[in-house]
Amino acid sequence: MVSLGDLALGFRDNYLDHDQLTRQLRAWCDAYPHLARMQSLAMTPEGRDVWLLTVGTDPDRVRPAVWADGNMHAGELAGSSTALAIAEDALRVHLEPGSVDLPPAIVERAREILFYIVPRVSPDGAEAVLKTGRTIRSVPRDTRVARGTPRWIPGDIDGDGLSLAMRVVDPTGELVDAPGFPGLLVERTLEDHGPFYKVYPEGSIEHFDGKRIPNPYFLGDNPIDLNRNFPWSWAPHHEQAGAGAYAASEPEARGIVEFATAHPEIFAWCNYHTFGGVLIRPPGHTPDSKMNQEDLALFRQLEAWMTEHTGYPTVNGHDEFLYEPDKPLRGDLSDYAYNQRGAFAYVIELWDLFQRLGMQRPKKFVQFYEEVSRDDIVRLAWWDKDENNGRCFPPWRPFDHPQLGKVEIGGIDPRIGIWNPPLHELATVLDRQVQVFFRVAALAPRLAIDKVERHPLPGGVTRVELKVINAGYLGSYGVPSAKPLDFNEPLYATAHAGAGKLELVESGHAYQQLGHLDGWGHGLHTGANLPSYPGTRGSTSTAWASYLVRGTGVLEVRIGNARCGFVTTRVEV
Predict the structure, then answer these.
(1) pLDDT at residue 532 above 80?
(2) For 460-482, what is each residue's pLDDT tens digit?
(3) 168 three-state secondary structure
(4) For residues 504 and 497, is the Cβ–Cβ distance under 8 A?
């Protein structure tokens, strides 16, 4: 059998385009058809598949599953790399378990669950970023009916195949060359003498009147942000920028929603973004005081793992990651996964650039993006020159723009080094994230039929009793807040007489509802470790199914639910 190393196409030290990514997934599926298969969740307007890779033995058997996705924002390529690294290691726990850098107990659990991996949610957007360098939030398309307002259309103007930045000398410009680093633009101060610059995306202005230059806007030419298009708490564009025409209006989002709805076994969900070096957890719309406190304890365990293995801090999306105070994001994927699908869902912003620059953490993490100083930018430029081959700040080149006249093009290319980790550090970033994600996967509920008892009764009748347990960390419902969701049904048992001359005495009892079973875990800092009172929970992780049968033969029993999957047994009587 071919080794995983022989199939690797370099995603641990480079960013793959759509064809390369597709070839990587197909290589795994072709080599290991018993462990991997791929399907398209959606076809994009430009004709690219949004691939979902399923990893695990017997993929049609319902059982607890984890989900990882990345690159829903076009330039956030490291999310794709992380998802591919998770997929490769999910294969490795089956094929080469001795080579996996994980505790044996984690490896054992990983072999029992399914992995659903969507490496690239926005293949059209990522392709445009990789091939042209243009700035795109999610998808390179504009289906708005009203297009009469002047706006920037990014594109390659000078014919070099890239669409980077343009700077124009302007006495009202907000930027100036950094002293000691020519070509690096920094914020203008009162002490500066100029020349001063305006910066625009390389491209042209639609509906330009020859005088008024519109403000560049990151959703100006492509008004969809896929991470505002999901149905939980969705709001229209005038309330939430990037929302789309309606919830799940975009094929990429719709494909995810349709799959997730059909697969309630997804109990954990990670949505990988860049950049910042932070874990963003629920709730995104309310403070921790209003969160399910049992859920919060579970997220404290996740925080401990994230701190240990990556050094990333963990923040509440509402308290530390709102772009505008008291204005929660709407239509967010992780909020959808947590609130509507009942998953242990969170966001990772990969690549701790702020820590690399030596910046002190502000009161709210989101303020990092606002408080970058001139000195920070200079440090970034020197780091880019010394360690990143100068990728982020290429030289400016003069050009005669058909609308603006004399400009300079180049100067800023944030793709590798700002938006995403530098190539020589990518593998380390991926390895650290794998450590955390596989521990999350190991939280899965774990049903088992622990004991079967047969009690003979008069008249050829036997009482068959089966003890089912949940030996997993999480309860059979997943996170506690998911219990009320309609699809999160309690465990149930069904039985029927198989081979032999056996019959159920009470056929109406063939179906029995057993209720939910707790797991053994409870998160961190709940007081459970304090030995002030001897005692743990009772038999809340255990249930019994009981059947009266007459005669001899085989009783076939199936126990489970939609979230946990099912365990079966054949009882000879």
Answers:
(1) no
(2) 999 999 999 999 999 999 999 99
(3) strand
(4) yes
311: left (phi over 0), alpha (psi -120 to 50) or beta: left
The proportion of the chain whose per-residue pLDDT surpasses 90, expressed as a percent, equals 87
pTM of the model: 0.95
Q: Are 232 and 331 in contact (CB under 8 A)?
A: yes
Q: Cβ(131)–Cβ(17) under 8 Å? A: yes
Given the structure tokens 């990651």, which residue do they identify?
321
All structural domains of the chain = 4-129+224-351+420-441 (3.40.630.10), 142-221+386-410 (no CATH), 447-572 (2.60.40)
Six-digit token string for 54? 């399923």
Per-residue confidence (pLDDT) for residue 530, from 0 to 100: 74
Whether residue 264 is preceded by a cis peptide bond, meaning omega within 30 degrees of 0, is no
In sequence order, which residues have a C-beta less than 8 Å from that of residue 362 and are 6 or more positions away?
Answer: 368, 371
Written as six digits, the tokens of 23 are 């070839």
Token digits for 383?
Answer: 């780091």
Structure tokens at 399: 């050009």
* Tokens 């596989």 belong to residue: 438
Residue type present at position 404: L
- DSSP character string of 77-140: THHHHHHHHHHHHHHHHHH-GGG--S-HHHHHHHTTSEEEEES-S-HHHHHHHHHH----SS-S
Beta strands in 222-312 (DSSP E): 266-274, 278-281
pLDDT averaged over every residue in the chain:
95
